[in-house]
Every structure is written in structure tokens, then in C-alpha cells.
Design the sequence.
């Protein structure tokens, strides 16, 4: 009798109902699957946040590039207007050019463009008459600089704002190698051309290491209605160049100061290499995983741009739910549900044992 009772108790101790093992398996699966799902959701969330930030950085860089490209094109528009002035006139006096430059309102409408000029093509046999005409037109001290006879002269006849120090009136560009090749390329191609790195006349008084990098934009002008299909025809009909000068730093500041100061930019000249020729803000250096690169081209010259967000910009400081927090919450919930199911299985087993013992 006692042996039979002990045998029955030992049998009851291992029984908890047919659903108890299943519930325990489900509890383990809930924990494992919950953790796996939490990891997947956290990774997806982190990727979405990064992708959104990358898209904002890309859009910001593209917007800055469009603004910088537009500023260069705007400079070209001023020179195209000057080209139209010369094509519409057989003669443009010094006063005519001064009025034209004043109506352009360079300081306000073309910030960063230091001056616009007219550089005339003068064959040697016409040099004396050219100088005499310039002196009659209101420049009594006009002369071609540097002195000496050459087969032809590329002479700056008018330049506004010429009242500032460093006037280029009378200067023969054939004595400036950094501009000479671009002048002849513009003449032969008929296209807007940008010179290599040069120095503005007003900056020559600075020590060589402190002279800002500058460029000259050139638009060739031909006699109106003259055939210009071939290089030979273009040379025969050539009159001169509408020119504009700008410092790289002034241009970059003018192009980017109107936009929200959230991204810094470096401007590089790949044809020369080395350090950036201009930065905005001053002293900015781009780097890190959020850096973006782009380029702008005009007049046969390409500039490289490097962008990076400035410290404290909304792109970097925007608050989002951390992926680690999502992972922690998901894991905690999974463990909690698995624990509850496991305890429910244990309670079910205990309840059945108590019931059997009571019976």
C-alpha cells in the first residue's frame, strides 16, 4: 500500500499537462526571435537615420555647388553684355565704357568681380595710331607697357574700376604668361575662357606668399557679321577681349555668404594641385566621414570643391532615437515575454501537482 502511494507520487511529480513543454519551447522561441527581430529593427533604423543624413548632406553640397556655378555664370553674363556693347558699336569711348560699367552696378550685382576691362588686339603697325587715339579719348598719359616693339599687343584700353590702386590701363598681356595662353585660346576657339592662376595688379605690392590667387575670365569679341567658322576667320575678324578679374577667395565668399552657414567649403585648382586656393569660412578644413566632393567648370577650367558640415549644424545635432535604445527595448520586451511564458508553464505545472496531491 505504501509502495503504491510512493509510486503514484513520483509519477505525478513529472506531469504538468501536455501543453507545458510546448509553452516552455514557445518562451525560448519568443526570447530568441524577439532578440533577433530587435537587432534587425535596430540595424534598419540606424541605416535609415544614416541614409537620411547622407541625403541631406548630398542635397546641401549639390545646392552649394549650384550656387557657386551660378556665380561664375553670372560673371560671364556681365562680360557677354560687354561683348554686345562692342559688337553694337564701331567705336566705344572711354566715357561710354565708364557709363556702361556704372550701369552694371558691379559691387552690388556682381559681388567678388573686381573689375571689367576691354583688352584690344593691336598689330604692331597700328600701335602708334592706337596710342594716339587713346590719348585723344581722355588718357593723355596712355602708353603701352612694358615698352618695346612686338609683332602684336594685347593692350588693356579700358578698365573699371580703374580708379582703385593697381590700374592695368596700357598693360600688354603678352608680357603676362599666366594670361597669355588663355587669351589666345579664347581668340581661336570663340568660347569663354578662364586664365590660369594670376595676381591682380593691386595685390602685387604684397609679399609673394601673401598674394591672393586670382583668375581672369575672357570673352572674345569679333567684328559683327564677320564669318567666324574657322580659326583663320576668327583671327581675321578679331577685335579684342571682354575681361573680368576676380580673386578666388572673394568669389567664394560672395557665392556662399547668401546661404545658411551650415556647411564649409574648400576650393581647389586641380591644374596646380596643393592646398585649397580659397575656403569659406576662412581657415575651414574639410574632413571626416561626412565630407562631400563636387566640381564646377567654366571656360575650360575645372575647380574641385570639398564640403563638410560645420560643428553645431542641425545636420549633426538633430536628435533621433538611438539604435542602441531600440535594441535594448526590444531585447527587454522579448526577455520579459519569454519569462512570463516560462513562469506560466511553471505555474501550470505546480497547479496540476497541487490538484493531484489534493485528490
Sequence:
Amino acid at each position: 500500500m505504501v509502495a503504491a502511494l510512493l509510486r503514484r507520487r513520483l509519477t505525478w511529480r513529472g506531469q504538468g499537462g501536455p501543453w507545458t513543454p510546448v509553452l516552455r519551447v514557445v518562451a525560448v522561441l519568443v526570447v530568441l526571435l524577439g532578440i533577433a527581430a530587435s537587432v534587425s529593427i535596430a540595424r534598419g533604423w540606424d541605416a535609415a537615420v544614416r541614409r537620411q543624413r547622407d541625403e541631406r548632406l548630398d542635397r546641401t553640397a549639390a545646392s552649394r555647388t549650384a550656387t557657386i556655378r551660378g556665380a561664375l555664370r553670372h560673371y560671364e553674363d556681365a562680360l557677354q553684355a560687354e561683348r554686345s556693347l562692342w559688337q553694337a558699336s564701331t567705336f566705344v569711348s572711354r566715357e561710354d565704357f565708364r557709363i556702361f560699367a556704372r550701369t552694371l552696378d558691379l559691387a552690388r550685382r556682381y559681388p567678388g568681380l573686381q573689375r571689367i576691362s576691354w583688352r584690344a588686339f593691336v598689330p604692331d603697325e597700328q600701335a602708334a595710331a592706337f596710342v594716339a587715339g587713346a590719348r585723344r579719348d581722355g588718357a593723355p598719359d596712355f602708353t603701352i607697357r612694358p615698352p618695346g616693339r612686338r609683332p602684336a599687343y594685347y593692350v588693356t584700353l579700358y578698365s573699371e574700376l580703374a580708379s582703385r590702386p593697381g590700374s592695368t590701363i596700357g598693360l600688354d598681356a603678352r608680357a603676362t604668361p599666366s594670361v597669355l595662353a588663355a587669351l589666345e585660346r579664347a581668340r581661336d576657339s570663340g568660347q569663354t575662357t578662364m586664365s590660369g592662376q594670376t595676381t591682380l595688379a593691386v595685390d602685387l605690392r604684397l609679399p609673394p606668399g601673401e598674394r591672393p590667387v586670382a583668375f581672369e575670365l575672357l570673352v572674345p569679341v569679333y567684328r559683327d557679321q564677320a564669318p567666324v567658322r574657322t580659326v583663320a576667320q576668327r583671327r581675321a575678324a578679331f577685335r579684342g577681349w571682354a575681361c573680368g578679374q576676380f580673386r578666388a577667395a572673394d568669389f567664394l565668399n560672395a557665392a556662399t555668404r547668401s546661404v545658411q552657414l551650415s556647411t564649409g567649403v574648400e576650393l581647389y585648382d586641380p591644374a596646380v594641385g596643393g592646398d585649397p586656393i580659397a575656403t569659406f569660412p576662412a581657415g575651414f578644413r574639410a574632413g571626416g566621414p561626412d565630407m562631400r566632393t563636387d566640381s564646377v567648370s567654366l571656360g575650360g577650367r575645372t575647380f574641385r570643391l570639398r564640403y563638410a558640415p560645420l560643428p553645431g549644424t542641425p545636420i549633426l545635432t538633430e536628435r533621433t532615437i538611438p539604435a542602441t535604445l531600440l535594441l535594448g527595448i526590444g531585447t527587454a520586451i522579448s526577455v520579459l515575454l519569454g519569462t512570463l511564458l516560462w513562469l506560466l508553464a511553471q505555474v501550470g505545472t505546480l497547479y496540476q501537482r497541487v490538484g493531484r496531491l489534493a485528490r
Notes: The longest helix spans residues 20-87. The first strand starts at residue 113 and ends at 123.
